[in-house]
Amino acid sequence: MSVLKDFLCDNLHVRVFDTRKAMGDCAGQEACTFIKQLLSTKESINVMFAAAPSQNETLAALLADPDIAWERINAFHMDEYVGLDPAHPAGFRNFLKRAIFDLKPFKSVNLLNGNADDIAAEAARYDRLLRENPLDVCLLGVGENGHIAFNDPPVADFADPTYVKIVELEERCRVQQVNDGCFEHVDQVPTHALTVTIPGLTAAGAMFCSVPAITKAEAIERMVRGDISTACPATILRKHPHAALYTDADAASRIL
After folding, report:
1. Does residue 45 sit in helix, strand or coil?
2. Distance from C-alpha of 218 to C-alpha of 146, rounded to nearest angstrom
3. What is the mean pLDDT of residues 247-256?
4. Which segments within 107-168 are labelled E, that is strand?
5. In what order do the strands lie in the sheet with 137-140?
6. Quick one: pLDDT at residue 72?
7. 230 assigned to some structural domain
8. Is pLDDT above 70 for 1?
9. Does the pTM of the predicted model rise above 0.90?
10. Tally of domains within the chain
């Protein structure tokens, strides 16, 4: 794989690769190494996954590793639409089941239920789960508006008191779901979602952030060169003690 740029931005290790596959291979392989190191000292670990096409190459690299003891990993995910048909393929539970959860023998798979009768109670339930099972690893991406999980700029809070909350999705975020091919029209994209908050995400011991594609170029520029602010929520990764950003040349085109 060819690394086009490699540098630190505050605490954040940033690497730019010539191709999307090279980006995912490196992110996945480094996450695998970290996971195996953890499992050499802990009986089980907790890993959070993002559900998005941007994660496909990273997940493929994870799946290809023959030496991960999946039966010692508790899996979590970071967001889910509220009120979407439970069988809809764009549901994040369903995406991750197809992409990884149904493919490996996890110790447990802990799903957010966006169709719960009491959504506030569901948020509180998942909040408790995350506090009882502190995250060791978070595999994430960045949205076109700079969001991480569904913490869009209008609702992002670096000091959020909760680990999970109900949010209204910003229009640009909903349009991204169409751009990603998950829905045919923005009117089909739910207006609300459950999301793990920024403190919930950054509580993870290590964060591996994979961000490909030209549609993310503005977000990556703001993430790396802008002020650390909820105007671009992903900037908070620059304060994390163990975070890495992996991008391809398209996503990094404004910082090359």
Report:
1. strand
2. 8
3. 98
4. 108-110, 137-140, 164-168
5. 3-9, 12-17, 243-248, 206-211, 137-140, 45-49, 73-77, 108-110
6. 98
7. no
8. no
9. yes
10. 1
Taking only the tens place, the pLDDT of each residue in 74-102 is: 999 999 999 999 999 999 999 999 999 99
Q: List, for residues 155-186, the tens digit of each pLDDT value.
A: 999 999 999 999 999 999 999 999 889 999 99
Quick count: other Cβ atoms within 10 Å of Cβ 173? 21
Distance CA 39, CA 208 (A): 17
> Exposure string (b/e) for 203-220, b if CB count within 10 Å is 16 or more?
bbbbbbbbbbbebbbbbb
Contact (CB, 8 A) for 50 and 62: no
Q: Does residue 243 form part of some domain? A: no
Q: For residue 255, tell me if it sits in a domain.
A: no
What's the longest Cα–Cα distance across the chain? 49
CB 246 within 8 A of CB 208: yes
- What is the residue range of 96's domain? 28-212
Q: Tell me, what amino acid is at 111?
A: L
92 vs 89: CA distance, rounded Å? 8
Q: Does 102 reside within a domain?
A: yes
- CATH number of the domain within which 60 lies: 3.40.50.1360
**pLDDT more than 70, % of the chain:** 100
Calpha distance 85→158 (Å, rounded): 31
CA 116 to chain centre: 22
Write out the two tokens for 243: 């975070």
In eight-state DSSP terms, residue 236 is G
Q: How far is CA 60 from CA 25, 29, 172, 205, in A?
A: 8, 10, 28, 22
Beta carbons of 92 and 128 less than 8 angstroms apart: no
Q: What is the DSSP letter of 192?
A: E
